[in-house]
Predict the 3D structure of the following.
Amino acid sequence: MRGYPDQWERYSPRERFVRWLWLAGIAIAAAWSVSALDIEWAFFADAHEQAADLIERMWPPRWSYFPRIVQPLIETLHIATLGTMIAIVFALPVAFPRRANTTWTPGTWRSAAACWCCRARSTP
């Protein structure tokens, strides 16, 4: 049984070296990209103080302000629900012709629906 190591190792020394090179390359690329961001590191020094101040101002909530935000909150939910319903109305006529198991003619309707789906995804 020559050629076999006495102890099993997951990676050979060459594979470990290549993995180390990849890791070092990724670390160097990440350090270079962070250095190119021009981050103001002084802001990180007092970040914990800023977070504590934010939590202090948020808690306890001012319940006297609650009646002023109920109407805008309900309006926001209505807008979200209406947007979802409009999206469903527009999606169903495109979705069913696109499906292979619901369309009788594989040519015209499926290709038109595929074009519309691709156009909808690429439109900002």
